[in-house]
Recover the amino acids of this structure.
């Protein structure tokens, strides 16, 4: 494409359009870097204020983030039911019977079972669309809940499973059948899925953005799902390597370090100017965070089981993240950040020891519960809207943002895409503009 500076002067171009594309040309084609803390964007001695850039037709919009907690009381069924409800809402309000979750979110982060859901809903299938609809993902969890979340008693296994042993496990075979040879590069949108690496003694975040930059951070999706859902009590740690064999991790459940990945997702977006160039604060975000029900613990017993302690730690961390994120969004209005979680009353019905039908019924009831919200410096409160009501309202906001992008010049998201050529290095990674992704 010829540079805009070479356009014939007789060619009529709207001044604002010319300025905008001059900015994009310099920023994305020639590596122009915006000065820190600048209130204006400068390109070729032309200045356009942020106020002008965000006015009416040229509003840069909001980045849409989906975050899904780890197991909780329902083994992911509450989150999956929430997504089924949301997808139905999106299809009804958009008039598109084939609308899917991945089309209405720009980033997804999932931990544990949330990571499995993220992988199912955002990995590209052979037809170019997501492998699973929300309804299909719920069915997958219902049918395979016992395989993925084995609740056998036992101590934390210190013997690391070799790759040959991993390939023989039922859960690995299950994920192999679903994802085949797909890797992080084959996801439709930015995906963030955590686990805890015992080698570095630190959280490890599987990231599509990192995978597109370096093969040393690209992993097979089946391995990602095994890693993020590897219960340290019943399954033990799993060993895996990146596509080029250079990065090795020994992983356990992502819920141990990051049961609620919302802060990781927000941080990723705010610090990733290549893919989200105009996102500067939480006011530029729309965030949906899905919990999976609060577990019921017997406080009379003098000693909790190891698995019980792991759950307490994970769910406690989730609540702390929710409180912190709510505080960050306090000035943006409730519509920018929505949290779906049970209020604790029905948690006992959804415990993982119950039958799958009990868990599904409990999740359905949780959607009908009055919602719980974190209040700045005041803990939590029960509000009049139900969880289902909040999903309906949030679905409306997603539709509005999608419609806005159809008439906007400035791109809200500039996704990185992998070249269809053989994956040999980061040189095969391309960046393409997208205002509707």
């Amino acid at each position: 494409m010829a540079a805009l500076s070479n356009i014939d002067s007789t060619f009529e171009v709207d001044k604002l359009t010319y300025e905008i594309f001059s900015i994009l040309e310099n920023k994305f084609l020639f590596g122009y870097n915006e000065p820190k803390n600048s209130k204006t964007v400068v390109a070729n001695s032309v200045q356009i204020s942020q106020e002008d850039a965000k006015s009416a037709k040229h509003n840069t919009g909001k980045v849409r983030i989906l975050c899904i907690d780890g197991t909780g009381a329902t083994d992911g069924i509450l989150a999956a039911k929430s997504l089924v409800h949301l997808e139905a809402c999106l299809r009804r309000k958009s008039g598109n019977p084939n609308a899917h979750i991945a089309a209405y979110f720009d980033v997804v982060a999932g931990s544990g079972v949330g990571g499995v859901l993220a992988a199912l809903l955002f990995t590209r299938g052979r037809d170019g669309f997501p492998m699973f609809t929300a309804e299909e993902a719920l069915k997958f969890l219902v049918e395979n809940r016992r395989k993925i979340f084995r609740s056998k008693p036992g101590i934390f296994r210190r013997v690391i499973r070799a790759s040959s042993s991993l390939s023989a496990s039922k859960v690995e075979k299950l994920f192999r059948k679903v994802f085949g040879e797909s890797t992080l590069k084959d996801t439709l949108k930015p995906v963030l899925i955590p686990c805890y690496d015992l080698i570095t003694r630190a959280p490890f975040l599987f990231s599509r953005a990192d995978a597109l930059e370096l093969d040393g951070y690209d992993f097979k999706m089946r391995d990602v799902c095994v890693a993020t859902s590897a219960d340290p009590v019943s399954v033990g740690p799993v060993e895996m390597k990146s596509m080029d064999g250079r990065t090795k991790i020994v992983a356990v459940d992502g819920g141990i370090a990051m049961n609620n990945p919302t802060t990781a997702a927000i941080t990723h977006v705010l610090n990733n100017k290549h893919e989200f160039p105009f996102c500067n604060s939480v006011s530029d975000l729309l965030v949906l965070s899905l919990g999976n029900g609060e577990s019921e613990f017997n406080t009379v017993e003098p000693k909790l089981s190891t698995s019980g302690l792991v759950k307490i730690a994970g769910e406690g961390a989730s609540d702390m993240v929710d409180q912190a994120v709510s505080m960050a969004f306090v000035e943006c209005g409730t519509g920018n950040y929505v949290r779906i979680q049970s209020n604790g009353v029905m948690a006992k019905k959804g415990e993982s020891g119950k039958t799958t039908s009990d868990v599904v019924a409990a999740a359905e009831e949780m959607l009908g519960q009055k919602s719980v919200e974190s209040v700045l410096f005041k803990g939590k409160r029960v509000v009049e809207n139900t969880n289902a009501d909040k999903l309906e309202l949030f679905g409306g906001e997603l539709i509005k943002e999608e419609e806005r992008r159809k008439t906007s010049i400035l791109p809200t998201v500039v996704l990185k895409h992998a070249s269809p050529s053989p994956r040999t290095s980061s040189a095969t990674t391309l960046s393409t503009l997208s205002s509707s992704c």
